[in-house]
Amino acid sequence: MAGVDFRMEGGRTLEEALAQFTKPMAKGVGRRALKKAAAPILDDYQANTKVVSGNLQESEVAGTRLNPRQRKLNKKDPSKSAIEIHIGTADPGGIQEEFGNANQAAHPALRPAWDKEGGQAAVDRIADELAKDIEKTAARVARRAARGG
């Protein structure tokens, strides 16, 4: 989204705290935080979807996996430490529903959900969830170390 700025307070502190974990563990912390932060957007998206038949609502998810067509369209970040989460649908009918076509008017659900729940609020939720998950993971690592595992 060009021209949109977001600010996150305490980013360096969170980054330093993540550095104490192994790379896979840190990515897991990041993934969990992103999924929790995306939940309000996904809930609003599902609540505002007009089509209730078929598999459109069931296919609306927040996750890290894309279908083959979406993978081809989405160029992956070359850095191995990047973490992405996608909110949307794997159903091709979702595009028609969101943007419309020559035979059908648009019934946007994802964009209004982003406008209501996303943006700076999402960035703030990510920071909060990261801080919580870093604490939980650090406690779990300490318990494992105390057990000798």
Lateral arrangement of strands in the main beta sheet: 1-2
Q: Please mark out the parts with pLDDT under 50 across 5 or more consecutive residues, or reply none.
A: none
Structural class by SSE content: mainly alpha
Radius of gyration: 18 Å
Count of individual helical segments: 6
Percent range for β-strand residues: 5-15%
CA distance, first residue to last residue = 44 Å
DSSP strand tally: 2
| Rounded average pLDDT | 85
Q: Give the ordered list of helices and strands.
A: HHEHEHHH
Largest sheet: 2 strands, antiparallel
Question: Secondary-structure blueprint of this entry?
Answer:
Elements: H1 11-18, H2 23-48, E1 60-63, H3 68-73, E2 86-89, H4 93-99, H5 110-117, H6 120-147
Antiparallel strand pairs: 1-2
Notes on the structure:
With 149 residues, this protein is mainly α. It is built from 6 helices and 2 strands. The protein has one domain. It starts with 10 loop residues before the first helix and ends with a helix.
Notable characteristics:
149 residues, mainly alpha, two-stranded antiparallel ribbon, 56% helix, elongated
How would you summarize what this structure contains?
The protein is mostly helical. It has 6 helices and 2 strands.
